[in-house]
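in:
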């Protein structure tokens, strides 16, 4: 047996051991040094291999697939800068607690630090963004099956332990790299029956924490429950809010934006008059910190902030938390609820409920008045249309904020977003990866996010994936005209921030083989998305929005809500 045969045999053991623990998907990019690993993944009948030309896209695809599928996904690449391309997605996975198995091929130790081609310092490449960085032995130096089974078990266990995290296994190989074909077939019997690790759910609150939480909520009338992003959404938060008589402000990515939650919560908080008159005495925050600036301002000025942090995210940017408890959100809600006496309707809860109805009515009236598409209306109408059991992947920048503003409470929709590091990179790949998990998937993203990851569209559009991407085209980064940069000289604002592109998105879609539809009236959005869902492959629905008129409409929304909230300001 050659060195390549030994390496391939060891990788067969390693891969099969991962499969026995639950691995089903791997994203592989072409490269020479990773040949033994790539062949082992490809030849295992229980691994679905997704081939990606670009390692950065591969990693975000794996991220979306792991988020939607709820199990680790493997990444496999060659040595050198290929491994570095994984970093953005590894950072996002780390900050949102998604288990990725990052498997990077490398040169053996004797070729490191001597100027060998395509060799960089790979051990420790991802720093603190992985739970563990394992620099494996060269298969020819360690051909023992037990070593590779143990490496697989350790890699998997560390990835799925609570809270789940990416794990990096650096795998050095010597040449030759292509097996001769004389390697014995691996039958899998030696690892059959290996224990599968449990899903990385947070535990419920301990008795002392549960009792303290119940006492805190039971003794306060003017309280508010804020549900940020949660890996595992839970409708029991709505039940808790009803029991304690507190309003529930639930972000779409919490899984708790269901009937019973506020329908216009962000509009209420964005109105300074209402927000100032309704500062809660206690805020119970479950999950990540709020996405919106008004939400962050609320938790930053509340007298008492209590955080239930299922994934140990340390979700307290203002350092205001009186107490932070690492526990499952749904289990916590149930533990509190059974300890609390149902609270009768109070003036506090009535004010929030009535103001919410008034704000929602005003918001919808403004959005429905125009015959031009707007970003908030696109988010509202798309989220309302999504079929039960489907997944909506929303991009950072304005889409996630507009969804938070305009999405009405509903059941049966899962909303995913890359809000750990909040980058616009890799959104197309994340949507396509989520679609590979099996549920009907739609993406909502901006034009710059779409173009930033256009390579993923060009590579994947003809590869058997089914997804609809709704792309809001406002001609560039319009969000900067809503931030402090708007006061810069117009030439600098456009050149450095808005970055108007002037590109024909239909031509980009045609180049990749994706379908394309252009929407210029708001009532045409749902029919276009419906047609896209019925068609095979990747379909792009481009919603053309005039950035200047959209800014004016946002001001109109603000004014209409302020007028509607007059009695509660």
């Amino acid at each position: 047996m050659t060195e390549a045969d030994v390496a391939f045999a060891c990788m067969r053991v390693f891969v099969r051991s991962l499969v026995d623990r639950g691995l089903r998907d791997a994203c592989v990019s072409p490269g020479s040094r990773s040949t033994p690993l790539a062949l082992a993944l490809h030849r295992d009948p229980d691994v679905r291999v997704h081939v990606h030309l670009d390692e950065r896209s591969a990693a975000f695809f794996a991220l979306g697939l792991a988020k939607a599928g709820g199990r680790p996904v493997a990444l496999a690449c060659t040595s050198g800068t290929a491994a570095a391309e994984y970093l953005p997605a590894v950072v996002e996975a780390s900050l949102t607690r998604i288990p990725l198995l990052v498997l990077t091929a490398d040169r053996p130790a004797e070729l490191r630090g001597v100027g060998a081609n395509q060799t960089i310092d790979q051990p420790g490449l991802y720093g603190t963004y992985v739970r563990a960085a394992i620099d494996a032995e060269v298969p020819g130096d360690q051909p023992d099956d037990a070593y590779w089974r143990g490496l697989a078990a350790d890699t998997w266990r560390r990835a799925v332990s609570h809270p789940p995290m990416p794990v990096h296994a650096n795998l050095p190989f010597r040449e030759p790299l292509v097996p001769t074909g004389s390697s014995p077939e691996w039958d899998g019997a030696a690892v059959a029956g290996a224990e599968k690790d449990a899903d990385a759910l947070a535990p419920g609150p301990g008795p002392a924490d549960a009792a303290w939480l119940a006492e805190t909520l039971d003794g306060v009338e003017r309280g508010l429950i804020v549900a940020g992003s949660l890996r595992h959404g839970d409708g029991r938060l709505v039940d808790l809010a009803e029991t304690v008589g507190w309003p529930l402000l639930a972000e779409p990515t919490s899984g708790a934006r269901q009937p019973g939650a506020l329908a216009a919560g962000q509009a209420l908080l964005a109105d300074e008059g209402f927000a100032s008159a309704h500062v809660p005495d206690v805020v119970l925050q479950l999950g990540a910190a709020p996405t919106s600036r008004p939400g962050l301002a609320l938790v930053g000025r509340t007298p008492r902030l209590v955080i239930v942090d299922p994934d140990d995210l340390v979700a307290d940017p203002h350092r205001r938390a009186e107490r932070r408890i690492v526990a499952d959100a749904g289990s916590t809600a149930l533990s509190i609820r059974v300890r609390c006496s149902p609270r009768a309707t109070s003036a506090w809860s009535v004010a929030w409920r009535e103001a919410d109805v008034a704000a929602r009515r005003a918001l919808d009236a403004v959005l429905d008045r125009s015959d031009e598409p707007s970003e908030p209306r696109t988010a509202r109408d798309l989220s309302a249309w999504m079929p039960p059991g489907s997944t909506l992947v929303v991009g950072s920048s304005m889409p996630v904020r507009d969804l938070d503003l305009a999405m009405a409470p509903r059941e049966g929709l899962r909303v995913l977003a890359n809000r750990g590091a909040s980058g616009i990179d890799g959104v197309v790949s994340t949507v396509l990866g989520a679609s590979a998990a099996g549920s009907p998937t739609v993406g909502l993203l901006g034009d710059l996010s779409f173009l930033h990851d256009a390579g993923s569209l060009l590579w994947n559009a003809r590869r058997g994936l089914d997804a609809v991407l709704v792309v809001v085209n406002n001609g560039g980064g319009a969000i900067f005209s809503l931030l402090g940069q708007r006061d810069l000289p117009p030439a600098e604002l456009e050149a450095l921030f808005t970055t108007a592109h002037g590109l024909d998105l239909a031509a980009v879609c045609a180049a990749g083989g994706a379908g394309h539809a252009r929407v210029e009236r708001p009532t045409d959005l749902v029919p276009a998305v419906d047609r896209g869902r019925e068609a095979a492959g990747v379909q792009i629905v481009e919603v053309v929005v005039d950035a200047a008129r959209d800014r004016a409409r946002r001001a109109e929304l603000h004014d209409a809500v302020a007028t509607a909230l007059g009695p509660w300001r």
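note: Confidence is low (pLDDT under 50) at residues 186-195.
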